[in-house]
Amino acid sequence: MIKSNKAQLAFFVLIGVVIILAFSVVLYIGNRETDVNSELIKLNELSFANAEVKLYMQECIENAAVDAATAFGYQQGHYTLPNDSLHLQANDVAYYYSQGRNQIPSNEFLEENFGKLMNAQVMRHCSFAELREQGYTIAQNTISTKATILEKKVVFELMYPIEIEKDLKTRVEKFSYELPYRIGHIINSSRILIDAVEDEPYALDLTLLLYQDLDISVFNYDPCNQIYIIIDNKSRMPQSEEGYVFAFAVNFEEEYCDYTVGSIPEETFDLFDEFD
How many secondary structure helices (H) and strands (E) does the chain include? Predict the structure, then answer.
């Protein structure tokens, strides 16, 4: 009877040990999965363990954002300029006002086109050629960018699946970058200017320009067309000495054309030649 009780006791102890071990294994696996998920979140935030890869990605995305913003300013927020544009010697300038119509695109249109411009510049800047030369294997997929234009910055969210492998394989899908350019403020100021042009075509109250904290110049391209050039010296990268440039054109109905004006200054063409 004693031996039977001991056997039963040993059996229950064994069962208890098995349960404890099983619980420990489950707990370990759960913790391990949590660690992996945390690591993926960090990778999605561009927290590469390899500083070399991290620096490369940060630089190429920043350069892409700056160039996308430059194209946005010189193309009036369009990915492809519309046919109804003012044709210059080097570039076209889209009309924000033409023949009595306000043609400033909606914010949704501008953000969608900004995303397309960013896609193109990321593909240009993030070729990964330097990393491949250093022995990295890179596999990349289609890029898709969501751009959000705010008053004092532009936020880019990029879905760009990439696998980078050398000694270890790293997969990252999402990048985000904030460009400290006041493009939302510039667009809002442009809307104010066009509203004023609509109210009084070719009789813009020039004091309105003084109330904007932007450097705004108006050039008479010809009797019926004007070009507005906005320079924001508060929108620049730390290493840059030049402000951000944004431009748009205005086309008047015949009755408001001013045939007393001269031609546009030649240096204005130089400004657009630099972008081209």
Answer: 7, 10
